[in-house]
């Protein structure tokens, strides 16, 4: 499969516009296989969820066409010769009961995202973690559709990772207290299933619709990199910190604010031992005026709590430091200064103070000797 932009897109947004992805400006040329794969794979789930859905619907192309009317951001997938779907005002889906939602959560292993051939739900979201996207209508949870986009993502507690819901909630709280934008979230239970409910930041209230789609792309797609390369094994990797920082700085309409948030996220990830802060867990938002900004932070989990989880950071700091407990303030300063971005060293000082304040204002939700020891050594991050 190869992707190309239609003439109407170039007429509307202009040749060279980055309205779809900053890695592939609008052009009359057909995208080469690498960028095409980065886009297509970037719209699909990963891991077991992808395997289950491909078993039901076939190839990646079939899967995208079958499920692509509701994806990340404002992307809608359709046959090249088909008319795009249209919003239908006035849809009134039946509200889901607690039992309905609990059943869908329990069924996620065999019906990822609530999708199967036996259901009418058709959507695709990237990621490995089990999740259930739902719409919101008049305060009620409903099955999403094209006209009623999913507005929340329900992330149930996995049995293999006890405490994950509370840990992710705590990670979001630390970031918010450190002045980093985050989505709204809450913890709810559905027939005893503890669940983190995250409001999608790429869905905004609309006068005519419950929610309107706002386009976004994760940093893998922004770099034209396939999801399989979302972790960086060295400073030369396609998703190394320097490349992530550059794609944010070079495309943001508010680079000073966004780079401050980016540096603060880095300090938080090191401080709390988040080894899953890969390039798909950072995104760019494409606003309606055509500008781009760093999206709110999400999926921030102190994975260091789990002895069985890989404890290397998703990107090395200062060329080759991968263990969070080994990172010092000198390493962080050398890393941010290597980006060549004006004021990055000052941003690091500000980030340190903000994160120190945030950690002091939050209470860690679980008993965890490894994390308590790591958090107790926060001072090492001050140069």
Short description:
With 383 residues, this protein is of the alpha+beta class. The protein is built from twelve helices and ten strands.
Helix and strand arrangement:
Blueprint: H1 7-13, H2 33-42, H3 47-57, H4 60-67, H5 98-106, E1 132-137, E2 140-142, E3 152-156, H6 164-177, E4 185-190, E5 193-199, E6 203-205, E7 211-213, E8 215-218, H7 219-223, H8 241-251, H9 255-272, E9 283-286, E10 292-294, H10 329-338, H11 344-361, H12 369-376
Rg, alpha carbons: 21 Å
Share of residues in strands = 5-15%
Distance between the termini: 50 Å
Helix and strand element order: HHHHHEEEHEEEEEHHHEEHHH
CATH topology of the largest domain: Phosphatidylinositol 3-kinase Catalytic Subunit, Chain A, Domain 5
Strand order within the widest sheet? 2-1-3-5-4
Determine the mean pLDDT: 92
The residue ranges in which pLDDT falls below 50 over 5 or more consecutive positions are: none
Give the biggest sheet: 5 strands, antiparallel
Look at the helices and sheets and give the structural class. Answer: alpha+beta
Q: What's the total helix number?
A: 12
| Strands, total number | 10
Percentage of residues assigned to helices: 25-40%
Corresponding CATH architecture of the largest domain: Orthogonal Bundle
């Amino acid at each position: 499969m190869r992707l190309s932009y239609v003439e109407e897109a170039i007429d509307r947004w202009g040749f060279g516009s980055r309205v779809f992805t900053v890695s592939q400006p609008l052009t009359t040329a057909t995208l080469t296989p690498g960028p095409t794969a980065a886009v297509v794979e970037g719209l699909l789930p990963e891991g077991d969820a992808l395997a289950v859905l491909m078993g039901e619907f076939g190839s990646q192309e079939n899967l995208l066409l079958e499920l692509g009317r509701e994806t990340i951001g404002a992307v809608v997938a359709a046959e090249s010769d088909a008319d795009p779907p249209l919003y239908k005002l006035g849809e009134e889906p039946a509200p889901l009961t607690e039992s309905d939602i609990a059943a869908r959560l329990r069924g996620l292993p065999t019906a990822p995202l609530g999708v199967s051939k036996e259901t009418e739900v058709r959507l695709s979201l990237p990621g490995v973690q089990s999740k259930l996207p739902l719409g919101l209508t008049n305060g009620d949870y409903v099955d999403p559709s094209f006209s009623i986009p999913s507005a929340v993502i329900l992330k149930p507690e996995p049995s293999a990772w006890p405490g994950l819901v509370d840990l992710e909630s705590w990670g979001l709280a630390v970031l918010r207290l450190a002045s980093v934008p985050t989505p709204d979230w809450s913890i709810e239970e559905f027939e005893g299933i503890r669940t983190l409910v995250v409001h999608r930041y790429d869905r905004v209230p609309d006068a005519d619709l419950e929610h309107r789609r706002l386009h976004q792309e994760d940093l893998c797609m922004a770099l034209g990199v396939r999801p399989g390369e979302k972790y960086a094994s060295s400073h030369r990797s396609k998703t190394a910190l320097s490349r992530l920082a550059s794609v944010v700085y070079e495309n943001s309409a508010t680079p000073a604010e966004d780079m401050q948030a980016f540096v603060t996220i880095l300090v938080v990830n090191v401080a709390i031992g988040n080894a899953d802060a890969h390039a798909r867990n950072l995104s760019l938002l494409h606003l309606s005026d055509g500008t781009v900004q760093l999206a709110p932070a999400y999926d921030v989990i102190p994975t260091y709590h789990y002895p069985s989880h890989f404890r290397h950071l998703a990107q090395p700091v200062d060329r080759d430091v991968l263990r969070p407990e080994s990172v010092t303030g000198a390493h962080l300063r050398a890393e941010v200064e290597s980006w060549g971005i004006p004021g990055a060293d000052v941003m690091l000082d500000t980030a340190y103070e903000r994160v120190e304040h945030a950690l002091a204002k939050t209470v860690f939700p679980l008993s965890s000797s490894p994390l308590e020891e790591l958090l107790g050594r926060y001072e090492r991050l001050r140069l």
